[in-house]
Fold each of these.
Amino acid sequence: MTTTLLTSSALSPYVQLHEEVQEALSAGRPVVALETTIVTHGMPYPANVETALSVENIIRSAGAIPATICIKDGAIHVGMSRHEIEDLAQTKDVIKASRRDLPVVLANRYTASTTVAATMIAARLAGISVFVTGGIGGVHRGAERTMDISADLQELAKTDVIVVCAGTKAILDIGLTLEVLETLGVPVLGYQTEQFPAFYTRDSGHKANFRVDTPQQVASIARIKWDLGLTGGLLVGNPIPMDAELDPERINQAIHQALQTAEAQKITGKEVTPFLLAELERLTAGESLQANVRLVEYNALVGAQVATALAESAHQ
Ligand code: PSU
Ligand code: MN
């Protein structure tokens, strides 16, 4: 344990809050959780570390405190130093940890990054209610054969955290993903749009559950949900900025090709998503990566505003 880390033993002996995060939380100031699977499995080096740091800066500039989350030395670390982020981004063979992996990783003191599901759990344990990512996992195309449905969806059903994302990539079956979210009772809010976004593009062709236009609206919907005892998360679909959007035809062509390669190479389980992301980057000559960076940065801004609105509503 380093001196900058404090154990939040009241919550869990396995959670270590970074000092800055702990201070902000005890003062009721806005905090935004961030995942690290996007760092270890979602983007190549050095774009991964540059993006992780830029996202933190955006959150700070918007008046909130970032809490980037990973697992190492037998604890879930909530809030990482710049050095720790740089280190994780360059470590090879980091485990991608979702809900099922958490106890195993902790017991063995492995180093792991956290998926959306695992980051939601960590945020909840730390008392953080807003979490920013790029895209969530969902129902994979062909899931009626493979049963490949991300644990992120179940987590949204269970864990009280607002997740700000740019939708899900069209590598998934977006329609089925939304059906499952409906079944699980997860509100899907379109941020300043009626549509559910498709990550690289602004419109998936599917509608969001409801449109919201302000961070205050998101905060108030979340508060009411939790006040009613309706446990579980809320999903905010924040479309990629217009000038960063990719051409739908080109990206869908690349997605189609990447899916075929994954099938031919018999990629399964937790390797599927990272494999497809890397293939897309190759097939689009880096364009998909650039779009990914832009959309995460924009989500960070909106997430910080939502966290601020939520913190303000608590003081009323
Ligand atoms: N979608 C992206 N980039 C990512 C991920 C999803 O556009 O990096 C990561 C997230 O951490 C998400 C995880 O929680 O992949 C989903 O993996 P799986 O499909 O194996 O549940
Ligand atoms: Mn999967």
Amino acid sequence: MIKYVQNLNNMKHFINLKDIPAKDLRKIISDAKRRKNKRKKMSTLEIDKGAPLKGKILIQMFEKASSRTRISFYLAIKQLGGGTLTLRSNELHLGQGGESIADTAKILSTYGDGFMLRTDSDQKIEDFKKYLSVPIINGLSPSSHPTQVLSDIFTVEEIMKEPISKLNVCWIGDTNNVLDSLIAASVKFSFKLSIGCPKKFEPGKEVRNWVKKNSRKIYIYNDPKKAVSGADVIFSDKVISLNDKVNKNKKIQQFKKFKIDNRLISFASKKSIFLHCLPRGDEVSDEVFLGKRSHVWQQALNRVHVQKSILLYCFGKLR
Ligand code: CP
Ligand code: NVA
């Protein structure tokens, strides 16, 4: 009961970038920058000064595969003095259909201090949110991958050494959860976003209207050269997302001319960088993915740093 009252006072959920004030997102990035700088000589599991999440446990549950998200959250909370418990949904009564979300949420709130969920259902996140008395973090859902994209904004600014609002950002690929969060970020951080994809896979009306309502614009092209022209940052992701229920071969064919190779990259700005959330498929050539413009490993590592600040934000401890 004491935890319930304490948490309600200052806890915050992290579900969708659209719903988080821009100044909070900027504060998370600044905190991550400070913390990363201070850790330069520290080893992986050494705890940050003050151990701000000492004694706290994050329960993370994956209904879909994950390598980076699960490991980076494990390291993130460890470095803040806390710990994680990682579950697969089929290990729970909930996953077997035997227990309600309401009761599961009460139990998670009784044992844990925070809950991270990767799921194929946005509704499930909302249902958990309703019954939890601890913060919930979206670790990837059909509509959003907010921890990934906030971390990517950090990576862009770290490499380019200027605010993302001054850069031309481009996405070549499918309209999916990562792009949805990138579109939300383009509004929150005021950067120009050009999207290159086949007509059939363009962002839908709902997201376009949301951008318009927020007095911003996204630029959509069905010609990858036009989308990439003058870009400072090129993002991509797999054409086939986890559990994408489409004719895979047909979709891959439809994206064929959107493959990111050196020829396509030559239309971007000279200083351009390439980022990819991983895992990768055939959407990018090895020469680009492993080439000098690619910063994908630094991008993956930065998830630890940014997620630490996301955790502090959710636990009401971001200073
Ligand atoms: N980028 C990302 O979320 O990777 P995982 O699916 O491995 O967690
Ligand atoms: N769009 C991808 C991202 C994986 C991190 C997916 O949902 O599978």
